[in-house]
Amino acid sequence: MTRRRDSERAPRPPAYTVVIPTTGRDTLVPLLRGLAHGEGPAPDEVLLVDDRPSDRAHSPLTPPELGPPVRVLASGGRGPAAARNVGWRAARTEWVAFLDDDVLPSRDWPARLVDDLTGLADDVAASVARIDVPLPGTREPTDDERDTLALTRARWITADMAYRRQALIEVGGFDERFPRAYREDADLALRVRRAGWRIVEGERVTTHPPKRGGFFASVRRQRGNADNALMRAKHGARWRDEAGEGPGRLGRHALTTVAGLAALALAAVRSPKVALAAGLWTGLTAEFATRRIAPGPRTPGEVVRMAVTSAVIPPVACAHRLAGEWRVRRGRAVLFDRDDTLIEDVPYLSDPEKVRPMAGAADALDLLRTAGVPVGVVSNQSGLARGHITPEQFRAVTRRVDELLGPFQTWQYCPHAPDEGCPCRKPRPTLVTRAAEELGVDVRRCVVVGDIGSDVEAALTAGARAILVPTARTLPEEVELARRHAVVAPDLLTAARIALGLT
Prior knowledge:
Layout: E1 16-22, H1 28-36, E2 45-50, E3 70-74, H2 80-90, E4 95-99, E5 104-105, H3 109-117, E6 124-132, H4 143-149, E7 160-164, H5 165-171, H6 184-194, E8 198-207, H7 217-220, H8 224-235, H9 239-243, H10 250-268, H11 274-293, H12 300-329, E9 333-336, H13 361-370, E10 375-380, H14 383-386, H15 391-405, E11 410-414, H16 430-439, E12 446-450, H17 453-462, E13 465-468, H18 476-485, E14 487-488, H19 492-499
Parallel strand pairs: 1-2, 1-4, 2-3, 6-8, 9-10, 9-12, 10-11, 12-13, 13-14
Antiparallel strand pairs: 4-7, 5-8, 6-7
Keywords: Carbohydrate metabolism, Cytoplasm, Hydrolase, Metal-binding
Region (Disordered): 52-71
Subcellular location: Cytoplasm
Protein backbone atom coordinates (compact mmCIF):
# COMPACT_ATOMS: atom_id res chain seq x y z
CA MET A 1 0.00 0.00 0.00
CA THR A 2 1.37 3.44 -0.91
CA ARG A 3 1.60 5.96 1.91
CA ARG A 4 -0.36 9.14 1.27
CA ARG A 5 1.51 12.39 1.05
CA ASP A 6 1.03 14.95 3.86
CA SER A 7 -1.09 17.16 1.61
CA GLU A 8 -3.51 14.25 1.06
CA ARG A 9 -3.97 13.32 4.69
CA ALA A 10 -7.30 13.93 6.35
CA PRO A 11 -7.43 17.23 8.28
CA ARG A 12 -6.70 17.01 11.96
CA PRO A 13 -9.93 17.01 14.02
CA PRO A 14 -10.50 20.37 15.71
CA ALA A 15 -9.65 20.42 19.40
CA TYR A 16 -12.47 21.39 21.72
CA THR A 17 -13.19 21.97 25.41
CA VAL A 18 -16.51 21.17 27.07
CA VAL A 19 -17.82 23.77 29.56
CA ILE A 20 -20.64 22.77 31.91
CA PRO A 21 -22.07 25.33 34.36
CA THR A 22 -23.73 23.53 37.27
CA THR A 23 -25.27 23.91 40.69
CA GLY A 24 -24.54 20.28 41.51
CA ARG A 25 -27.80 18.75 40.30
CA ASP A 26 -28.20 14.97 40.18
CA THR A 27 -28.34 15.12 36.37
CA LEU A 28 -24.65 16.03 36.26
CA VAL A 29 -23.33 12.52 36.92
CA PRO A 30 -25.04 10.77 33.94
CA LEU A 31 -23.94 13.66 31.71
CA LEU A 32 -20.28 13.29 32.71
CA ARG A 33 -20.42 9.50 32.39
CA GLY A 34 -21.93 9.87 28.94
CA LEU A 35 -19.04 12.10 27.88
CA ALA A 36 -16.54 9.62 29.33
CA HIS A 37 -17.88 6.76 27.22
CA GLY A 38 -18.65 8.73 24.08
CA GLU A 39 -17.50 7.63 20.66
CA GLY A 40 -15.13 9.90 18.80
CA PRO A 41 -12.34 12.37 19.63
CA ALA A 42 -12.46 13.19 23.35
CA PRO A 43 -12.49 16.79 24.51
CA ASP A 44 -9.18 18.36 25.41
CA GLU A 45 -10.69 19.04 28.82
CA VAL A 46 -14.04 19.17 30.61
CA LEU A 47 -14.44 22.36 32.65
CA LEU A 48 -17.05 22.00 35.35
CA VAL A 49 -18.04 25.44 36.65
CA ASP A 50 -19.52 25.28 40.15
CA ASP A 51 -22.08 28.10 40.24
CA ARG A 52 -23.28 27.53 43.78
CA PRO A 53 -23.04 30.63 45.97
CA SER A 54 -19.83 30.58 47.99
CA ASP A 55 -21.70 30.41 51.28
CA ARG A 56 -23.63 27.32 50.12
CA ALA A 57 -20.83 25.36 48.48
CA HIS A 58 -19.87 23.57 51.68
CA SER A 59 -18.24 20.67 49.86
CA PRO A 60 -16.39 20.80 46.53
CA LEU A 61 -17.80 19.02 43.51
CA THR A 62 -16.17 15.64 43.03
CA PRO A 63 -16.85 14.44 39.47
CA PRO A 64 -16.44 10.74 38.70
CA GLU A 65 -13.25 9.53 37.07
CA LEU A 66 -13.48 10.11 33.33
CA GLY A 67 -11.36 9.60 30.25
CA PRO A 68 -10.76 13.30 29.51
CA PRO A 69 -9.44 15.42 32.40
CA VAL A 70 -12.07 17.28 34.44
CA ARG A 71 -11.21 20.60 36.05
CA VAL A 72 -13.57 22.22 38.56
CA LEU A 73 -13.81 26.03 38.60
CA ALA A 74 -15.99 28.31 40.73
CA SER A 75 -18.11 31.26 39.63
CA GLY A 76 -19.62 32.22 42.99
CA GLY A 77 -23.32 31.77 42.25
CA ARG A 78 -23.56 34.65 39.75
CA GLY A 79 -25.69 32.75 37.24
CA PRO A 80 -25.10 30.65 34.11
CA ALA A 81 -23.85 33.57 31.99
CA ALA A 82 -21.07 34.33 34.46
CA ALA A 83 -20.33 30.61 34.89
CA ARG A 84 -19.93 30.12 31.14
CA ASN A 85 -17.61 33.13 31.00
CA VAL A 86 -15.44 31.60 33.70
CA GLY A 87 -15.36 28.38 31.69
CA TRP A 88 -14.52 29.63 28.21
CA ARG A 89 -11.90 32.02 29.48
CA ALA A 90 -10.10 29.06 31.11
CA ALA A 91 -10.29 26.96 27.93
CA ARG A 92 -7.15 26.48 25.85
CA THR A 93 -8.71 25.27 22.60
CA GLU A 94 -10.09 27.07 19.56
CA TRP A 95 -13.58 25.66 20.11
CA VAL A 96 -15.63 25.67 23.33
CA ALA A 97 -18.71 23.44 23.55
CA PHE A 98 -21.26 24.58 26.13
CA LEU A 99 -23.57 21.96 27.66
CA ASP A 100 -26.24 22.42 30.31
CA ASP A 101 -25.90 20.11 33.28
CA ASP A 102 -29.29 18.46 32.63
CA VAL A 103 -28.80 17.32 29.03
CA LEU A 104 -27.94 13.84 27.77
CA PRO A 105 -25.68 13.81 24.70
CA SER A 106 -25.89 10.79 22.42
CA ARG A 107 -23.18 8.14 22.64
CA ASP A 108 -21.63 9.37 19.40
CA TRP A 109 -21.87 13.04 20.44
CA PRO A 110 -18.06 13.65 20.41
CA ALA A 111 -17.79 12.27 16.89
CA ARG A 112 -20.77 14.26 15.65
CA LEU A 113 -19.52 17.46 17.30
CA VAL A 114 -16.14 17.10 15.61
CA ASP A 115 -17.91 16.41 12.28
CA ASP A 116 -19.95 19.59 12.77
CA LEU A 117 -16.85 21.68 13.46
CA THR A 118 -14.52 20.21 10.84
CA GLY A 119 -14.09 22.39 7.80
CA LEU A 120 -16.18 25.32 9.00
CA ALA A 121 -15.34 28.60 7.30
CA ASP A 122 -13.32 31.15 9.23
CA ASP A 123 -16.33 33.45 9.56
CA VAL A 124 -18.42 30.82 11.37
CA ALA A 125 -18.57 31.62 15.08
CA ALA A 126 -20.73 28.79 16.36
CA SER A 127 -22.43 25.47 15.68
CA VAL A 128 -25.70 24.76 17.42
CA ALA A 129 -27.06 21.26 18.06
CA ARG A 130 -30.55 19.96 17.55
CA ILE A 131 -32.39 19.46 20.83
CA ASP A 132 -34.71 16.52 21.35
CA VAL A 133 -37.23 16.52 24.22
CA PRO A 134 -38.71 13.05 24.81
CA LEU A 135 -42.38 13.26 25.79
CA PRO A 136 -44.84 10.60 26.95
CA GLY A 137 -46.69 9.11 24.01
CA THR A 138 -49.75 8.22 26.05
CA ARG A 139 -51.02 11.74 26.80
CA GLU A 140 -50.68 15.39 25.81
CA PRO A 141 -47.74 17.31 27.35
CA THR A 142 -48.13 19.30 30.54
CA ASP A 143 -47.36 23.01 30.81
CA ASP A 144 -43.86 22.25 32.15
CA GLU A 145 -43.21 19.79 29.33
CA ARG A 146 -44.36 22.28 26.70
CA ASP A 147 -42.01 24.83 28.21
CA THR A 148 -39.09 22.41 27.74
CA LEU A 149 -40.35 21.51 24.26
CA ALA A 150 -39.88 25.16 23.27
CA LEU A 151 -36.11 24.51 23.41
CA THR A 152 -36.42 22.47 20.22
CA ARG A 153 -37.59 25.62 18.42
CA ALA A 154 -35.04 27.99 19.97
CA ARG A 155 -32.62 29.33 17.41
CA TRP A 156 -29.44 29.57 19.51
CA ILE A 157 -29.88 27.41 22.58
CA THR A 158 -26.73 26.98 24.69
CA ALA A 159 -28.00 23.69 26.10
CA ASP A 160 -25.60 22.44 23.40
CA MET A 161 -23.73 25.03 21.40
CA ALA A 162 -20.08 25.24 20.37
CA TYR A 163 -18.46 28.66 19.98
CA ARG A 164 -15.17 29.72 18.46
CA ARG A 165 -13.16 31.30 21.27
CA GLN A 166 -12.07 34.26 19.12
CA ALA A 167 -15.69 35.25 18.54
CA LEU A 168 -16.36 35.16 22.28
CA ILE A 169 -13.38 37.43 22.89
CA GLU A 170 -14.49 39.93 20.24
CA VAL A 171 -17.96 40.39 21.76
CA GLY A 172 -16.97 39.98 25.41
CA GLY A 173 -18.67 36.62 25.96
CA PHE A 174 -21.98 36.31 27.78
CA ASP A 175 -23.56 39.41 29.29
CA GLU A 176 -23.58 38.74 33.02
CA ARG A 177 -26.47 41.15 33.55
CA PHE A 178 -28.67 38.21 32.51
CA PRO A 179 -28.84 36.36 35.86
CA ARG A 180 -30.91 33.38 34.70
CA ALA A 181 -30.69 30.69 32.05
CA TYR A 182 -32.87 32.89 29.86
CA ARG A 183 -32.11 35.20 26.93
CA GLU A 184 -28.36 35.21 27.63
CA ASP A 185 -27.85 32.83 24.71
CA ALA A 186 -29.97 34.82 22.25
CA ASP A 187 -28.25 38.04 23.32
CA LEU A 188 -24.82 36.54 22.67
CA ALA A 189 -25.86 35.20 19.27
CA LEU A 190 -27.29 38.53 18.16
CA ARG A 191 -24.10 40.34 19.15
CA VAL A 192 -21.94 37.75 17.41
CA ARG A 193 -23.94 38.04 14.20
CA ARG A 194 -23.79 41.82 14.28
CA ALA A 195 -20.02 41.56 14.59
CA GLY A 196 -19.99 39.85 11.17
CA TRP A 197 -19.86 36.19 12.23
CA ARG A 198 -22.18 33.41 11.10
CA ILE A 199 -23.89 30.74 13.21
CA VAL A 200 -24.69 27.38 11.63
CA GLU A 201 -26.79 24.40 12.64
CA GLY A 202 -24.98 21.12 13.24
CA GLU A 203 -26.13 17.55 12.78
CA ARG A 204 -25.57 16.33 16.35
CA VAL A 205 -28.60 15.69 18.53
CA THR A 206 -28.77 16.18 22.30
CA THR A 207 -31.58 15.04 24.56
CA HIS A 208 -33.06 17.46 27.09
CA PRO A 209 -35.38 15.67 29.54
CA PRO A 210 -38.63 17.51 30.33
CA LYS A 211 -38.57 19.83 33.30
CA ARG A 212 -40.59 19.08 36.40
CA GLY A 213 -41.73 22.22 38.19
CA GLY A 214 -43.98 22.88 41.14
CA PHE A 215 -47.49 24.31 41.13
CA PHE A 216 -46.27 27.88 40.59
CA ALA A 217 -43.37 27.11 38.23
CA SER A 218 -45.02 29.06 35.41
CA VAL A 219 -45.37 32.07 37.70
CA ARG A 220 -41.69 31.93 38.64
CA ARG A 221 -40.79 31.85 34.95
CA GLN A 222 -42.23 35.35 34.60
CA ARG A 223 -38.97 36.70 36.02
CA GLY A 224 -37.73 36.42 32.46
CA ASN A 225 -39.76 39.52 31.60
CA ALA A 226 -37.07 41.56 33.33
CA ASP A 227 -34.52 40.03 30.95
CA ASN A 228 -36.74 40.95 28.01
CA ALA A 229 -36.39 44.58 29.08
CA LEU A 230 -32.61 44.30 28.75
CA MET A 231 -32.99 42.62 25.35
CA ARG A 232 -35.13 45.54 24.15
CA ALA A 233 -32.60 48.06 25.41
CA LYS A 234 -29.69 46.28 23.72
CA HIS A 235 -31.26 45.14 20.45
CA GLY A 236 -34.21 47.44 19.83
CA ALA A 237 -37.96 47.01 19.82
CA ARG A 238 -37.86 44.37 17.06
CA TRP A 239 -35.42 42.05 18.83
CA ARG A 240 -38.02 39.27 18.93
CA ASP A 241 -38.20 39.14 15.14
CA GLU A 242 -34.42 39.03 14.83
CA ALA A 243 -34.17 36.26 17.42
CA GLY A 244 -36.99 34.22 15.88
CA GLU A 245 -39.31 34.75 18.84
CA GLY A 246 -43.08 35.12 18.74
CA PRO A 247 -44.81 38.38 19.65
CA GLY A 248 -45.29 37.47 23.34
CA ARG A 249 -48.28 38.26 25.55
CA LEU A 250 -47.06 41.25 27.53
CA GLY A 251 -49.61 43.56 25.91
CA ARG A 252 -52.50 41.29 26.88
CA HIS A 253 -51.03 40.80 30.35
CA ALA A 254 -50.90 44.57 30.78
CA LEU A 255 -54.54 44.93 29.68
CA THR A 256 -55.60 42.12 32.03
CA THR A 257 -53.73 43.70 34.93
CA VAL A 258 -55.21 47.14 34.30
CA ALA A 259 -58.71 45.63 34.12
CA GLY A 260 -58.19 43.80 37.41
CA LEU A 261 -56.84 46.87 39.19
CA ALA A 262 -59.67 48.98 37.79
CA ALA A 263 -62.25 46.46 39.04
CA LEU A 264 -60.76 46.58 42.53
CA ALA A 265 -60.66 50.38 42.55
CA LEU A 266 -64.23 50.70 41.27
CA ALA A 267 -65.44 48.16 43.79
CA ALA A 268 -63.81 50.17 46.58
CA VAL A 269 -65.85 53.26 45.64
CA ARG A 270 -68.95 51.20 44.81
CA SER A 271 -69.07 52.39 41.22
CA PRO A 272 -71.62 50.72 38.94
CA LYS A 273 -68.90 50.40 36.30
CA VAL A 274 -67.21 47.70 38.38
CA ALA A 275 -69.11 45.02 36.45
CA LEU A 276 -67.62 46.21 33.16
CA ALA A 277 -64.04 46.12 34.45
CA ALA A 278 -64.56 42.81 36.23
CA GLY A 279 -66.11 41.31 33.10
CA LEU A 280 -63.14 42.40 31.00
CA TRP A 281 -60.70 40.89 33.53
CA THR A 282 -62.69 37.64 33.67
CA GLY A 283 -62.86 37.33 29.90
CA LEU A 284 -59.14 37.96 29.38
CA THR A 285 -58.17 35.58 32.19
CA ALA A 286 -60.51 32.88 30.88
CA GLU A 287 -59.06 33.22 27.37
CA PHE A 288 -55.52 32.89 28.73
CA ALA A 289 -56.41 29.88 30.87
CA THR A 290 -58.23 28.16 28.00
CA ARG A 291 -55.27 28.69 25.70
CA ARG A 292 -53.03 26.97 28.26
CA ILE A 293 -55.42 24.16 29.20
CA ALA A 294 -56.45 23.10 25.69
CA PRO A 295 -53.12 21.56 24.50
CA GLY A 296 -52.47 19.78 27.81
CA PRO A 297 -53.61 16.52 29.39
CA ARG A 298 -56.59 18.30 31.00
CA THR A 299 -56.37 16.27 34.19
CA PRO A 300 -58.11 17.86 37.20
CA GLY A 301 -54.81 18.83 38.78
CA GLU A 302 -53.48 20.40 35.58
CA VAL A 303 -56.73 22.29 34.96
CA VAL A 304 -56.75 23.75 38.49
CA ARG A 305 -53.09 24.68 38.18
CA MET A 306 -53.64 26.44 34.85
CA ALA A 307 -56.73 28.27 36.09
CA VAL A 308 -55.03 29.58 39.24
CA THR A 309 -51.72 30.54 37.63
CA SER A 310 -53.47 32.18 34.67
CA ALA A 311 -54.97 34.68 37.09
CA VAL A 312 -51.62 35.30 38.80
CA ILE A 313 -49.28 35.47 35.80
CA PRO A 314 -50.42 38.78 34.18
CA PRO A 315 -49.69 41.08 37.15
CA VAL A 316 -46.51 39.19 38.02
CA ALA A 317 -45.26 39.44 34.42
CA CYS A 318 -45.97 43.18 34.34
CA ALA A 319 -44.27 43.72 37.69
CA HIS A 320 -41.12 41.95 36.54
CA ARG A 321 -41.09 43.89 33.25
CA LEU A 322 -41.42 47.20 35.08
CA ALA A 323 -38.61 46.21 37.43
CA GLY A 324 -36.46 45.26 34.45
CA GLU A 325 -37.16 48.55 32.68
CA TRP A 326 -36.23 50.43 35.85
CA ARG A 327 -32.93 48.56 36.10
CA VAL A 328 -32.21 49.27 32.45
CA ARG A 329 -32.88 52.98 32.92
CA ARG A 330 -30.59 53.02 35.94
CA GLY A 331 -27.92 50.94 34.19
CA ARG A 332 -24.45 52.37 33.64
CA ALA A 333 -21.21 51.44 31.91
CA VAL A 334 -17.56 52.45 31.93
CA LEU A 335 -15.62 52.68 28.66
CA PHE A 336 -11.84 52.78 28.52
CA ASP A 337 -9.37 54.03 25.97
CA ARG A 338 -6.84 51.29 25.23
CA ASP A 339 -3.32 52.69 24.73
CA ASP A 340 -1.77 54.44 27.73
CA THR A 341 -5.01 53.87 29.66
CA LEU A 342 -5.48 50.10 29.91
CA ILE A 343 -2.12 49.07 28.44
CA GLU A 344 1.20 50.78 27.90
CA ASP A 345 1.34 52.62 24.59
CA VAL A 346 3.53 50.90 21.99
CA PRO A 347 3.26 52.70 18.63
CA TYR A 348 1.34 50.53 16.17
CA LEU A 349 1.32 47.59 18.58
CA SER A 350 1.32 44.37 16.57
CA ASP A 351 3.06 41.92 18.91
CA PRO A 352 0.85 40.45 21.68
CA GLU A 353 3.97 39.69 23.71
CA LYS A 354 4.50 43.43 24.14
CA VAL A 355 1.13 44.00 25.82
CA ARG A 356 1.73 45.43 29.32
CA PRO A 357 -1.21 46.46 31.51
CA MET A 358 -1.07 49.93 33.02
CA ALA A 359 -0.64 50.14 36.77
CA GLY A 360 -3.96 49.65 38.56
CA ALA A 361 -5.85 48.56 35.43
CA ALA A 362 -6.68 45.07 36.71
CA ASP A 363 -7.79 46.37 40.13
CA ALA A 364 -9.98 49.07 38.57
CA LEU A 365 -11.67 46.59 36.24
CA ASP A 366 -12.19 44.08 39.05
CA LEU A 367 -13.87 46.78 41.14
CA LEU A 368 -16.27 47.66 38.33
CA ARG A 369 -17.09 44.05 37.48
CA THR A 370 -17.73 43.19 41.12
CA ALA A 371 -20.24 46.05 41.17
CA GLY A 372 -21.95 44.55 38.10
CA VAL A 373 -20.98 47.42 35.79
CA PRO A 374 -20.25 46.42 32.17
CA VAL A 375 -16.94 47.64 30.77
CA GLY A 376 -15.81 48.27 27.22
CA VAL A 377 -12.99 49.61 25.09
CA VAL A 378 -13.14 52.59 22.68
CA SER A 379 -9.90 53.06 20.76
CA ASN A 380 -8.43 54.74 17.68
CA GLN A 381 -6.33 52.28 15.68
CA SER A 382 -5.06 54.15 12.62
CA GLY A 383 -2.26 51.59 12.23
CA LEU A 384 -4.75 49.38 10.43
CA ALA A 385 -5.39 51.99 7.73
CA ARG A 386 -1.71 52.84 7.44
CA GLY A 387 -0.70 49.23 6.99
CA HIS A 388 1.45 49.08 10.12
CA ILE A 389 -0.86 46.46 11.66
CA THR A 390 -2.67 43.63 9.92
CA PRO A 391 -6.17 42.62 11.03
CA GLU A 392 -4.73 39.29 12.25
CA GLN A 393 -2.13 41.10 14.37
CA PHE A 394 -4.80 43.40 15.77
CA ARG A 395 -6.93 40.40 16.75
CA ALA A 396 -3.92 38.73 18.38
CA VAL A 397 -3.26 41.84 20.47
CA THR A 398 -6.94 42.01 21.37
CA ARG A 399 -6.83 38.39 22.54
CA ARG A 400 -3.83 39.17 24.72
CA VAL A 401 -5.48 42.23 26.25
CA ASP A 402 -8.52 40.10 26.97
CA GLU A 403 -6.39 37.37 28.56
CA LEU A 404 -4.73 39.88 30.87
CA LEU A 405 -7.60 42.26 31.63
CA GLY A 406 -10.86 40.92 30.13
CA PRO A 407 -13.61 40.25 29.58
CA PHE A 408 -14.89 43.44 27.96
CA GLN A 409 -18.55 43.59 26.97
CA THR A 410 -17.83 45.70 23.91
CA TRP A 411 -14.82 46.51 21.72
CA GLN A 412 -15.24 49.60 19.58
CA TYR A 413 -12.32 50.80 17.49
CA CYS A 414 -11.73 53.16 14.60
CA PRO A 415 -9.57 51.59 11.84
CA HIS A 416 -9.23 54.81 9.82
CA ALA A 417 -6.39 57.26 9.38
CA PRO A 418 -6.80 60.82 10.76
CA ASP A 419 -7.12 62.36 7.28
CA GLU A 420 -9.93 60.05 6.10
CA GLY A 421 -12.65 62.15 7.67
CA CYS A 422 -14.46 59.18 9.18
CA PRO A 423 -17.26 59.71 11.73
CA CYS A 424 -15.80 57.34 14.32
CA ARG A 425 -12.29 58.56 15.14
CA LYS A 426 -12.08 60.25 18.52
CA PRO A 427 -12.67 63.09 19.37
CA ARG A 428 -15.82 62.35 17.38
CA PRO A 429 -18.46 60.63 19.54
CA THR A 430 -19.39 57.61 17.40
CA LEU A 431 -17.30 55.00 19.26
CA VAL A 432 -18.90 56.07 22.53
CA THR A 433 -22.45 56.05 21.20
CA ARG A 434 -21.93 52.68 19.50
CA ALA A 435 -20.65 51.16 22.74
CA ALA A 436 -23.62 52.54 24.68
CA GLU A 437 -26.05 51.14 22.11
CA GLU A 438 -24.42 47.72 22.14
CA LEU A 439 -24.58 47.62 25.94
CA GLY A 440 -28.16 48.87 26.05
CA VAL A 441 -27.15 51.74 28.32
CA ASP A 442 -28.18 55.39 28.03
CA VAL A 443 -25.05 57.18 26.83
CA ARG A 444 -25.64 59.81 29.51
CA ARG A 445 -24.99 57.11 32.10
CA CYS A 446 -21.68 56.08 30.55
CA VAL A 447 -18.27 57.17 31.79
CA VAL A 448 -15.29 57.33 29.43
CA VAL A 449 -11.84 56.96 30.98
CA GLY A 450 -8.86 58.06 28.90
CA ASP A 451 -5.49 59.77 28.97
CA ILE A 452 -5.74 62.54 26.37
CA GLY A 453 -8.06 65.33 25.33
CA SER A 454 -9.68 63.46 22.44
CA ASP A 455 -11.02 60.89 24.93
CA VAL A 456 -12.60 63.66 26.99
CA GLU A 457 -14.00 65.44 23.93
CA ALA A 458 -15.51 62.23 22.51
CA ALA A 459 -17.25 61.55 25.80
CA LEU A 460 -18.61 65.06 26.24
CA THR A 461 -19.78 65.32 22.63
CA ALA A 462 -21.64 62.01 23.00
CA GLY A 463 -23.27 63.20 26.22
CA ALA A 464 -21.30 60.89 28.49
CA ARG A 465 -19.16 61.74 31.49
CA ALA A 466 -15.38 61.80 31.18
CA ILE A 467 -12.50 61.04 33.53
CA LEU A 468 -8.95 61.90 32.51
CA VAL A 469 -6.07 59.88 33.97
CA PRO A 470 -3.02 61.85 32.80
CA THR A 471 0.24 60.22 31.70
CA ALA A 472 3.58 61.68 30.64
CA ARG A 473 2.23 62.42 27.16
CA THR A 474 -0.92 64.22 28.34
CA LEU A 475 -0.67 67.90 27.40
CA PRO A 476 -1.22 70.59 30.07
CA GLU A 477 -4.08 72.11 28.07
CA GLU A 478 -5.78 68.69 27.98
CA VAL A 479 -5.58 68.46 31.75
CA GLU A 480 -7.01 71.96 32.00
CA LEU A 481 -9.88 71.02 29.67
CA ALA A 482 -10.70 68.04 31.87
CA ARG A 483 -10.57 70.13 35.03
CA ARG A 484 -13.13 72.53 33.55
CA HIS A 485 -15.55 70.07 31.95
CA ALA A 486 -14.82 66.63 33.34
CA VAL A 487 -12.85 64.98 36.16
CA VAL A 488 -9.13 64.39 36.56
CA ALA A 489 -8.10 61.28 38.52
CA PRO A 490 -4.56 60.39 39.64
CA ASP A 491 -4.88 56.70 38.70
CA LEU A 492 -7.23 54.13 37.24
CA LEU A 493 -8.44 52.73 40.54
CA THR A 494 -9.49 56.20 41.66
CA ALA A 495 -11.20 56.70 38.30
CA ALA A 496 -13.18 53.48 38.83
CA ARG A 497 -14.19 54.60 42.31
CA ILE A 498 -15.32 57.97 40.93
CA ALA A 499 -17.35 56.20 38.20
CA LEU A 500 -19.09 54.16 40.89
CA GLY A 501 -19.75 57.21 43.03
CA LEU A 502 -17.49 55.93 45.80
CA THR A 503 -15.22 58.98 45.78
